[in-house]
């Protein structure tokens, strides 16, 4: 039952492997609480509400709770389409108001320190790590997108890189000259030191880097320049977007660069820059 739904997400909805894994995790957790997969089709509104209350008592974040309820809602919507259920037990469920958190991003000084003050190792891994940070910051791509990059994605003539985003949507992102030159140098060093590979970023054993490895690499260097609690690849994506807006970028163009499906997702960065402006004003103005 769950496997059929996951196959539907993967092959018909064309969701990314990471998204499908999140659905699978949420559904399996609900099944474990429910007492077995065979009980999924007999679950009612009160069952869903009881699990919701359990999650809240465990102090799960509001975003986590919303995601899990969204997973259940999508699962039961699919079962209704298949004629297995007449109603969706998640419908009419009242969820706690989702907290609005502004994205974490690096300040200008922290960004400068990341690329001018940190000393990267003078070997393959040092070259690779610096290139990873430059590409995250220079393009704003997601960690899953960078993990899936192949050599063939780089168009040196047009100075573009092809990215496969959410739901397998392709987009082209311009590459700055220093990023393009950095990629050329990195690939030469990589091929010489560890061998050729269709994947762009690899380990010293010539295996493609996964999301967790990329997360570790980014956290390692962000920890040296930022005291923020969040030090993930997404911080560099937020930094790219925020600094682009601060420099006068058109918000619709930024939406396309980030691969957002709606403008609302991009507009959060306008709030972010406004809040930072207020903070800086209060700190700097003599009568604030």
TrEMBL record:
Matches recorded under PROSITE patterns: CB, TYR_RECOMBINASE
InterPro entries given for it? CB (IPR044068), DNA_brk_join_enz (IPR011010), Integrase-like_cat_sf (IPR013762), Integrase_catalytic (IPR002104), Integrase_recombinase_N (IPR010998), Integrase_SAM-like_N (IPR004107), Tyrosine_recombinase_XerC/XerD (IPR023009), Tyrosine_recombinase_XerCD (IPR050090)
Its chief place of residence is cytoplasm
Q: Where is the Core-binding (CB) domain?
A: 1-80
- Places the protein is found: Cytoplasm
One Gene Ontology term from the biological process aspect of the record: chromosome segregation
Residues annotated as catalytic: 142, 166, 234, 237, 260, 269 (o-(3'-phospho-dna)-tyrosine intermediate)
**Which cellular component appears as one GO term in the record?**
cytoplasm
Instruction: Offer an example of a GO molecular function term for this protein.
Output: DNA binding
Q: Which UniProt keywords apply?
A: Cell cycle, Cell division, Chromosome partition, Cytoplasm, DNA integration, DNA recombination, DNA-binding
Which part of the chain is the Tyr recombinase domain? 101-282
Q: Which HAMAP family match?
A: Recomb_XerC_XerD
What quaternary structure, including any partners, is listed in this protein's UniProt entry? Forms a cyclic heterotetrameric complex composed of two molecules of XerC and two molecules of XerD.
Task: Cite the PANTHER family for this sequence.
Answer: PHAGE INTEGRASE-RELATED, TYROSINE RECOMBINASE XERC
Q: What does this protein do?
A: Site-specific tyrosine recombinase, which acts by catalyzing the cutting and rejoining of the recombining DNA molecules. The XerC-XerD complex is essential to convert dimers of the bacterial chromosome into monomers to permit their segregation at cell division. It also contributes to the segregational stability of plasmids.
**Stated family:** Belongs to the 'phage' integrase family. XerC subfamily.
Name used for this protein in its record: Tyrosine recombinase XerC
Gene name per UniProt = xerC
């Amino acid at each position: 039952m769950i496997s059929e739904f996951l196959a539907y997400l993967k092959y018909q909805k064309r969701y990314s492997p990471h998204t499908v894994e999140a659905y699978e995790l949420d559904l399996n957790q609900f099944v474990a609480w429910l007492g077995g997969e065979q009980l999924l089709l007999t679950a009612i509104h009160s069952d869903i509400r009881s699990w919701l209350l359990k999650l809240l008592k465990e102090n799960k974040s509001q975003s986590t709770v919303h995601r899990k309820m969204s997973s259940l809602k999508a699962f039961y919507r699919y079962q209704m389409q298949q004629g297995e259920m007449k109603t969706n037990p998640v419908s009419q469920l009242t969820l706690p108001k989702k907290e609005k958190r502004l994205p974490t991003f690096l300040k200008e000084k922290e960004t400068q320190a990341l690329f001018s003050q940190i000393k990267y190792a003078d070997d393959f891994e040092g070259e690779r790590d610096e290139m990873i940070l430059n590409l995250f910051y220079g393009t704003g791509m997601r960690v899953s997108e960078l993990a899936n990059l192949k050599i063939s994605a780089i168009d040196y003539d047009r100075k573009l890189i092809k990215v496969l985003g959410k739901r397998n949507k392709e987009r082209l992102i311009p590459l700055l000259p220093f990023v393009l030159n950095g990629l050329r140098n990195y690939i030469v060093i990589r091929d010489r030191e560890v061998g050729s590979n269709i994947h762009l970023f690899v380990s010293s054993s010539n295996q493609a880097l996964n999301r967790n490895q990329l997360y570790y690499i980014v956290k390692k260097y962000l920890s040296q320049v930022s005291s923020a609690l969040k030090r993930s690849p997404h911080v560099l994506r937020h930094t790219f977007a925020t600094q682009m807006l601060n420099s006068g970028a058109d918000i619709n163009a930024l939406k396309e660069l980030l691969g957002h499906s709606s403008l609302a997702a991009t507009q959060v960065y306008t709030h972010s820059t406004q809040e930072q402006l207020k903070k800086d004003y209060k700190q700097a103005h003599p009568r604030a």
